[in-house]
Amino acid sequence: MTRAREAVVSADGTSPWPALWALVIGFFMILVDATIVTVATPALLVAFGTDVNTVVWVTSAYLLAYAVPLLVTGRLGDRFGPKNVYLAGLAVFTVASLWCGLTGTIGELIVARVAQGLGAAMMTPQTMAVITRTFPAAQRGRAMSLWGAVAGVATLTGPVLGGVLVGALGWEWIFFVNVPLGVVAFAAVWYLVPSLETSKRRFDLVGVVLSATGVFLLVFGIQEGQRYDWGPIVGPIPVWMLIVAGAVVLVVFVWWQSRTRSEPLVALQLFRDRNFSLANIAICTVGFAITAQGFPLMIYAQNVRGFSPTEAALLLVPLAVLSGALAPWTGRLTDRIHPRLIGGFGMATFAIGLFWLAAVMSPDTPVWQLLLPISLLGISNSCVWAPISTSATRNLPMEQAGSGSGVYNTTRQLGAVLGSAGIAVLMEARITALVPGAAATPDSAFAAGALPDELREPFATAMAQSVLLPAAVLVVGFVAVACFALPQHMRSRGR
């Protein structure tokens, strides 16, 4: 049978697939939690009697704590073993989820979300590291397609799952649901994931401080810039100064990595691999687009069309279903043909789908006409994750799998933060320019439900124009993917 001949086995003769399935349970949980809270914002406002800006920190704190340590936690996997670091992170994440559901104040909930984010940061790089170290280079495409499908589907599942849980059981259950899943995932990883060889090396403490400080300043500044209208954020210090300071610290970090005689946190020779460098550019644009596309579409659906939060989120079901269903097929193709072909197709159709969606976002467009471009987005998403992630990791030395995975996931998360900040700025600018009286109308008025008839057309136009931003950013990613070199395993086969 063909399937038998194509069976993938590790160096010890066992199949690595059960281990990967065990790992992606937790990976799915942490990505869902990046978006699940959004739909619970009204319930949190009522439960804690607080304001919108404070509730926003329930999500911001998680994303910040998730993004900042990724470079470090990827390296920890090389040092202490990806299985051990993953299990420690999963334990922290699961206990923090229980803590989130039991909190009695908004401040305590924010602190618990920070703990959740730290646990997520420990887990994320280990999944890619295990794939790199257990799957043969020629057959990593299928594994990475599963990883990518989980990443794409989880990001889109969050709002739908959140709407169902909040409506049926209450906001606490968006966190409580992680507890049984976390226990199952812990047991599965404990029994199914092998303990891989570690690299006993010195840890670059200066690099840890520089990378954490630089990423924190950069992500915090970008993430909170819109909230503070890009003005003073701490006393007289403006947002832009934090962003510049973060960029400067990261430049110093790169310089230090090139000069340190200790074991560097990020081996810069990784970037000598053409595909690794290009894949980081591409995944940054994908992270940007995945995050940015949802905001204008959800606001259009609820404010212009009058859909409930759950009804609006259901518009994304074709995207999630097609992305997950086609991922195994695209993964097999990724192992057999040049990654620029299927990746380029995915990036191109991703951009085309967003341009198409922007063209049909009018007040009275039939729902089926919206679902057509959204379905194309699902097809395109199935074609981008595996080629990009496998191109990033195929040629990595095994002892640097965790470090490379940490860099890759940090880049993806930075793209997501940039997408969130960029789309917020553009939406506000287009609403102010196109919606009569928008400058004098409080934001809460636009969040209250369907708009008056006279405002539906200009508001829809503002949201449609905002969708063009992630479409344009994806063009950069398309160019990066189009420049991928032929993978080494294909050269060795004379292909």
TrEMBL record:
Signal sequence, start to end: none
Subcellular location: Cell membrane
Domain (Major facilitator superfamily (MFS) profile): residue spans on this chain: 19-489
Transmembrane residue ranges: 20-48, 54-73, 85-104, 110-132, 144-167, 173-193, 205-222, 237-256, 277-300, 312-329, 341-361, 367-388, 414-439, 459-486
InterPro entries from the UniProt entry: EmrB-like (IPR004638), MFS (IPR011701), MFS_dom (IPR020846), MFS_trans_sf (IPR036259)
Membrane topology according to the record: Multi-pass membrane protein
Key words of the record: Cell membrane, Membrane, Transmembrane, Transmembrane helix, Transport
Entries under PANTHER family matching the protein: EXPORT PROTEIN (PTHR42718:SF42), MAJOR FACILITATOR SUPERFAMILY MULTIDRUG TRANSPORTER MFSC (PTHR42718)
Name of this protein: MFS transporter
Taxonomy of the source species: Bacteria, Bacillati, Actinomycetota, Actinomycetes, Pseudonocardiales
